[in-house]
Amino acid sequence: MIVAIKRFFDNQLASPAEESAAHREHRLQLASAALMFELLKTDRHIDARETDMLRHVLETTFKLGKHELDDIITLAEEEASQAVSLYEFTSLVNEAYEYADKVLLVENLWRLALADDHLDKYEEQMIRKTADLLYVSHSDFIRSKLRVRDGA
Q1: CA–CA distance, 128 with 113 (Å, rounded to integer)
Q2: Burial bucket for residue 126 (CB in 10 Å: 0-12, 13-18, 19+)
Q3: Cα(50)–Cα(137) distance, integer angstroms
């Protein structure tokens, strides 16, 4: 799993020396998508509705192209059956992103978790652990949950 994630970061998320705002935002979107799929796996069952919702969220929120969307879904599906180490993944995110980007990532995880109007305790636990590993404060963790829940 870690090798595939590092390869993904190297191929898709590596930060160029002089990065445009658009490229930086694109990298954050791809990283968010990868973590969102990991969130879907928390209940150990991914049905077609969840996959459809992931695709919908990525298309509407991030406006990813079909090729990029297919690439990230394929990567996430390949890694679905393997063990997940959130620390290894979040350490890469910590190296690449500013605090505000990390908060946005947590907010996007909440969007996916609350999309079906049911918050599984394992989903909340995974988001909390991810936020902790990203050094997102508890108050920002809660604020992001409330923003998404209240539709703000």
Answers
A1: 12
A2: buried
A3: 28
Burial track 48-81 (b if 16+ CB lie within 10 A, e otherwise)? eebeebbbebbeeebebeeebbebbbebbeebee
* Two structure tokens written together for 2: 């870690």
**Tokens standing for residue 74:** 């394929």
Cβ–Cβ < 8 Å for 7, 88: no
* All domains of the chain in start order, with CATH: 2-149 (1.10.3680)
* Model confidence, pTM: 0.75
10-residue averages of pLDDT along the chain (152 residues): 60 58 67 78 72 80 80 68 65 83 89 82 93 96 94 71
